[in-house]
């Protein structure tokens, strides 16, 4: 299968309620998510990400468009399309009087998984909850509850896993465990869709990234290509203190940092780093050390969503 998910002309308009006017949350989104990939779905708050995810999960009815999940048209085969996807939600919603084991068993039953095909014990081990298997959910820490949400999303062995802000508010240990599990699931063939406000995670984890803003898809590219869109680098030079600077190539922007180092921002498409260094050396500026800083995903995100 080439694509795990195909979305065409997806629209969602929430009707006016009270004094609140009607809101068009999605405005004709077209998106294909390759099977077997780790795919980032990013956007500012209110951009439409949650609406799109809830439509995929079958929790929100779309206004128009077509959604195909693992080859199943959501309108024609709703049960099969829903069975192909598992969602780890952002909210920590669970029955406080159920144990993790009971929660997984109930979830498996809701998906119609026969008892002979359930893998509750393996899931508890996968997410590190074996020792808490019989503890009430109300007694679990926030991090343990997030682990349980991941296990619940996997009970029916979906081909696609959606992680909605999975590391919001979790500690470093849990974050490392989660990403290790995600990598293993992906290596086993599962397609992962990730939404996160921690853009460094998306930069490190995702093969491709789509950015939604104001209900519209504004860009979808391989992560490395998206990073290359930012035509800017910074040359950081230790000159031993502040000195007078010579004229630099047009487009270079020098700035002295608080630590005494000189930072020169420049567009690498028009200026080479060696041109800047030659200009400084030619004017007698001492250069004790040189480093470069490349733009990250946050720089690209801000540029695309604020322009």
Automatic annotation (TrEMBL):
Keywords for the protein's UniProt record, in alphabetical order: ATP-binding, Nucleotide-binding, Transport
Molecular function terms from GO: ATP binding
Record Pfam families: ABC_tran
SMART domains assigned to the protein according to its UniProt record, in alphabetical order: AAA
Domain ABC transporter: 5-239
Database matches in Gene3D superfamilies: P-loop containing nucleotide triphosphate hydrolases (3.40.50.300)
Entry-linked InterPro entries: AAA+_ATPase (IPR003593), ABC_transporter-like_ATP-bd (IPR003439), ABC_transporter-like_CS (IPR017871), ABC_transporter_ATP-binding (IPR050763), P-loop_NTPase (IPR027417)
Name assigned to this protein: ABC transporter ATP-binding protein
Organism: Paracoccus stylophorae
């Amino acid at each position: 299968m080439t694509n795990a998910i195909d979305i065409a002309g997806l629209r969602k308009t929430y009707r006016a309620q009270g004094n609140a006017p009607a809101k068009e949350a999605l405005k004709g989104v077209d998106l294909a998510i390759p099977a077997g990939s780790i795919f980032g779905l990013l956007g500012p708050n209110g951009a439409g990400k949650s609406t799109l995810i809830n439509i995929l999960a079958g929790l929100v009815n779309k206004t128009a468009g077509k959604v195909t999940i693992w080859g199943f048209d959501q309108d024609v085969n709703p049960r099969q399309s829903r069975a192909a996807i598992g969602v780890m939600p952002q909210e920590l919603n669970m029955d406080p009087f159920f144990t993790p084991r009971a929660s997984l068993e109930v979830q498996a039953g809701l998906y119609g998984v026969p008892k002979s095909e359930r893998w509750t014990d393996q899931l508890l081990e996968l997410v590190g909850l074996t020792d808490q298997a019989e503890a009430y959910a109300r007694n679990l820490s926030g991090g343990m509850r997030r682990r349980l949400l991941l296990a619940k999303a996997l009970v029916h062995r979906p081909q696609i896993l959606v992680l909605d802000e999975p590391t919001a508010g979790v500690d470093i240990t849990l974050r490392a465990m989660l990403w290790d599990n995600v990598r293993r699931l992906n290596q086993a063939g599962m397609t992962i869709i990730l939404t996160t406000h921690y853009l460094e995670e998306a930069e490190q984890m995702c093969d491709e990234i789509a950015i939604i803003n104001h209900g519209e898809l504004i860009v979808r590219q391989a992560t490395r290509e998206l990073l290359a869109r930012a035509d800017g680098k910074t040359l950081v030079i230790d000159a031993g203190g502040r000195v007078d600077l010579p004229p630099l190539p047009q487009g270079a922007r020098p700035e002295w940092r608080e630590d005494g180092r000189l930072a020169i921002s420049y567009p690498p498409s028009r200026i080479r780093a060696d041109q800047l260094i030659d200009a400084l050396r030619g004017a007698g500026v001492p250069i004790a050390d040189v480093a470069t800083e490349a733009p990250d995903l946050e720089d690209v995100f801000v540029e695309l969503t604020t322009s």
